[in-house]
Amino acid sequence: MNEVTKIDGIGSSVRRTEDKKFLTGKGKYTDDINRPGQVQAYFLRSDVAHAKIKKIDVKDAQSAPGVVGVFTGDDIAADKVGGPICGWVVPCRDGSATKEPPHPLLAQGKVRFVGDAIAVVLAETAEQAKSGAELIEVDYEELSPVVDFENAGEGAQIHDEVPNNCYFDWELGDEKATADALSSAKKIVKLRVRNNRLVPNAMEPRCALAEFDNLDDSYTLHTTSQNPHLTRLVLAAFMFAIPESKLRVIAPDVGGGFGSKIYVYIEEAVCVWASKKVGRPVKWTADRTQAFLTDCHGRDHVNDVQLGLDENNKIVGLRVDTVCNLGAYLSAFSVVVPTYLHGTLLSGQYDIPAIYTNVKGMATNTVNVDAYRGAGRPEATYLLERTMETAAREVGMDPAEFRRINFIPKGAFPYQTQVALQYDIGDYEPHLDKAMEMIDYSNFEKRRAEAAKRGMYRGIGISSYIEACGLAPSAVVGALGGRVGQWESASVRVNPTGTISVFTGSHSHGQGHATTFAQIVADKLGIPMENVEVVHGDTDKTPFGMGSYGSRSLASGGSAISKAVDKIINKSKKIAAHLLEASEDDIDFKDGKFVVGGTDKEKAFGEIALAAYVPHNYPLETLEPGLEENAFYDPTNFVYPSGTHIAEVEVDPATGVVQVVDWAACDDFGNLVNPMIVEGQVHGGIAQGIGQALLEDAHYDENGQLLTASYMDYCMPRADDLPSFKVGYTTTPSTVNDLGVKGCGEAGAIASPPALINAVIDALSPLGVTDMSMPATPQKVWKAIQDSQSVAAE
Amino acid sequence: MGEISLKLNGELETRDVADNTLLVDFIREHVGLTGTHVGCDTSQCGACVIHLDGVSVKACTILAKQAVGADITTIEGLADGDELHPMQEAFHENHGLQCGFCTPGMVMSAVEMVNKNKDISEDEIREGLEGNICRCTGYHNIVQSVKAGAAKMGGKN
Predict the structure, then answer these.
(1) Which end of chain A offers a freer environment for a tag, N or C, measured as fewer CB atoms within 10 Å?
(2) Domain check: are B64 and B113 in the same one?
(3) Do A185 and A308 form a contact (C-beta atoms < 8 A)?
(4) Of A444, A186, A151, A491, nearest to A316 (Cα)?
(5) Which residues of A touch B44 (CB under 8 A)?
(6) Distance between CA atoms of residues A383 and A345, nearest Å
(7) Nearest C-alpha neighbor of B60 from the set B49, B73, B69
């Protein structure tokens, strides 16, 4: 055991232990891994959005140079391999269930979006596989494509199982109470907003490398996943009907996920299946255009909002009617994202006595829409914070003050919303105040006037958001239609010399768990962080766990580690009591030492570890040797981070370009384990939100062709599009977990789009502009300015 | 096919490659140095940036055959043994990376940018990184890292 020199515990901005390998090019991403004898897979994809397949001719492809095998949906059907499943369903208003059409791994008789996989070609090289695929002839009978999701009900039916192309028609809240509240309101603010469709765009394209071992009939899959255990469960239990023990899933270094690497994709399954078929390892790597066409997309809502106010401008009721686009197939979280991760957030930070929402989830001939950073909560926050700002403007109140009078008061927690959630704790005025101070809100009008002298329109916009994260109580998840538990696991192994190996069910794909989790252990055990190693991402090494999404790693995964360490400490006390010949009740654990209270008798943690593994002087009759503990932590509630972001922009009327000139973010994430990492998460979230608000838009034309299928056409935020960000915190520790932590991964992406659009509208408000849709591109902004001037001229 | 030779991180590498082999595939597939990444098909993302005769180049936009005889440095060749290059160190100290996928390209671009202009300003850094996409960091800490790296490399800003 090393001498304790420095404890980098909870609250310390320790530099990340995982950095060095990435900085020196030694990271191991899936595409960096190769296996002897591997073949490369290429997927032939539909280039039409909606069609019956009359005939597929693979003969020429089979005999093309280097081609090892060509397979189609018929081969998958013959082997009775299942497709991806939907992990969460909801009941419909009429009592019926969510319509769940099958999703075959390779098309069977029909293609439903541009990119739908029809056949896989395996060859010695990727180029040969691609050339082989070009020789496959597909005879289509084209059907009318359904692209406009608001009118998808009138379009051609995409699945036999989904009448009117409506997967579900769901509701939440009290419709009558809300109608009564709105009819008695002094003022009703109405707004229709669109949440634009986005592509998650993790920088590492998806990749899979599968191998079959015929000696013991087992498979190993390296893949780009946020949740390797879930991938194994779905592949083994639902697709291949093999024991989980026959499939090892490894998600090594993963280059970002943002939700897009949660669900099990057909390519992963086909590679696993084909590796046995051809008896060689099978590798597939997406290029960026395939990623655009086939990674799940995010958002894509239209929301009609009605907010009722009384004579004091207090909110009396809220009704939201939403239509959302879920694309051609349902996937892991596609149903829950616009329902229970969206409708339940509609109370925001506000005391709203009546809320009702209806959501219709539509099928279209576009790729699946599933979780993307924030997943449902950005959509809820966007419609609510746009409406709050619009209401403030309409009643002539400062938008900050209008929010303030409607906040849930500090003394009202725990607060039961009208949309199922109970917020355990929060305090919203302090982060509004602090964000206003950080951006110097009170002097904004001076800055606006100064900008006007330069011919620029300057505006400021607020967004006060809440999110429910740390997915979360299994009982609640189950009651709401979830098909999995949502606990998290940890195994903490004390090695004989007192070093620690932590095995976590969470998965890190940029979040820095190796550092944050080690800090928790180091803090609790009073040992140096370098003595703690964190292992994740391999189903053969880590306990069954649910992976990382929904800002759950620290609140759920970190809490599981904390609980496992508590068990280690409890057992260590028993060992210490024996060694020190004292009663267990008299043993205190402090600073890495077990001390008999009131004496100088003590044992260091390392001595306890050694005694546990060399139990020559040990209470073997009452205590097992060894020092390793597991914990499965299932929280009692979600955690509820909240905060206020304020954006300041300048609009150039000559070009319509919106420049983000300042940004203040004040968030309440509860206790922070590593503030540096938290800040990085906030920055990244804001950047993605600014991307949504100003630049990004996944656009299908009326034929269902994705026009934005490369970085030439889909505008990603770059360094010169963004400002530096001011980040601050307030703290109300979560009451749900022992660490008092919430979640920070999604907050920036949730908070930022309405702040930015509110700022753009505020900038243009002197021209009479009252609305702006995302993304606020220069063309759109310029047109709004021109239109307002032509109105003024009339 | 044809044999080509070039210098890669100080070592002479000779391989038989197809005429249409991209330099990035030569580095990744033929030599097996996987620190240089491929993030897009359109020379937009910059994950594949290397130094070719001291100039930062997107290794996906150039054929291996065009690099015959060149002196190439990849991310693996930047550190001096165990000692990180000042720019690598600055990225570590300023949390300039998260998932790490764009990082090799970012660091290689940053080093060349600072080699050309040691007193680089924040605006110049943001403009200079226009050809490198990061989805994780929001660039804030990357910009801080490049600033700090420039100072370590002798800059005065």
Answers:
(1) C
(2) no
(3) yes
(4) A186
(5) 710-712, 716
(6) 11
(7) B49
Hey, where are the domains in chain A?
A: 30-143+205-255+261-294, 298-471+637-793, 487-633
Within this chain, do residues B72 and B98 fall inside the same structural domain, yes or no?
Answer: no
A287: chain B residues, CB-CB within 8 Å:
40-41
Mutation site, B136, B142, B145, interface A, largest A CB count within 10 A: B136
Q: Chain A: residue nearest B40 by CA?
A: A288
Whether the predicted interface score ipTM is above 0.85: yes
Tokens of A37: 């004898």
**DSSP string of A652-690, one letter each residue:** -TTT--EEEEEEEEEEE-BS-S-HHHHHHHHHHHHHHHH
Are residue B16 and residue B70 in the same domain, yes or no?
yes
Q: What is the pLDDT of residues A678-734, one digit of tens each?
A: 999 999 999 999 999 999 999 999 999 999 999 999 999 999 999 999 999 999 999
**Number of domains forming the structure of chain B:** 2
Please check whether residue A255 touches B, CB under 8 A. Answer: yes
The CATH number linked to B41 is: 3.10.20.30
Which of A:175-214 have CB within 8 Å of B?
201-205
Nearest-Cα distance to chain B for A667, in Å, is: 17
CA A49/CA A698 separation, integer angstroms: 15
- For chain A, the C-alpha Rg in angstroms (whole number) is 28
Instruction: Flag whether residue A65 sits within 8 Å of chain B, measured between CB atoms.
Output: no
User: Which of residues B76, B106, B135 is at a domain's end?
Assistant: B76
Give contacts of B103 with chain A, Cβ < 8 Å.
22-23
Please name the residues between 667 and 686 in chain A that touch chain B, using a CB distance below 8 Å: 676-677, 679-680, 683-686
Tell if the CB–CB gap between B92 and A18 is shorter than 8 Å.
Answer: no
Band of pLDDT at residue A7, cut at 50, 70 and 90: low
Query: CATH says A30-143+205-255+261-294 is which class?
Result: alpha beta
Tell me, yes or no, whether B6 and B57 share the same domain: yes
Q: Does domain A298-471+637-793 have CATH number 3.40.50.300?
A: no
**Residue B102: which domain range?**
86-152
What digits encode the pLDDT tens for the residues A433-486? Answer: 999 999 999 999 999 999 999 999 999 999 999 999 887 788 888 888 888 888
A715 inside 8 A of chain B by CB: no
- Comparing C-alpha atoms, which of B153, B78, B79 is closest to residue B118? B153
Chain-centroid distance, C-alpha A655: 35
A427-457 b/e (C-beta count within 10 Å ≥ 16 → b): bbbbbbbbbbebbebeebeebbeebeeeebb
Of B53, B76, B99, the last residue of a domain is B76
Touching check for A710 and chain B: CB below 8 Å? Answer: yes
Q: Would the CATH topology of A298-471+637-793 be identical to that of A487-633?
A: yes
In a domain, B157, yes or no: no
pLDDT-derived band at A4, boundaries 50, 70, 90: very low
**pLDDT reported for residue B52:** 98
Selection from A445, A463, A269, A266 nearest residue A348 by Cα: A463
Q: Which residue in B has a C-alpha nearest to residue A677's C-alpha?
A: B95
Specify whether B20 is located in the same domain as B69.
yes
Residues B59 and B121 placed together within one structural domain of the fold:
no
B95–A510 CB contact, under 8 Å? no
A29 touches chain B (CB under 8 A): yes
Whether the CB of A26 is below 8 Å from some CB of chain B: the reply is yes
Whole-angstrom Cα distance, residue A377 to residue A739? 24
* Predicted confidence (pLDDT) at residue B157 exceeds the cutoff of 80: no
Is the domain of B94 the same as that of B69? no
| Domain at A487-633: CATH code | 3.30.365.10
Claim to verify: residue B25 and residue B65 sit in the same structural domain: yes
How many angstroms separate the CA of residue B85 from the nearest CA in chain A?
Answer: 9
Mean pLDDT of A487-510: 95
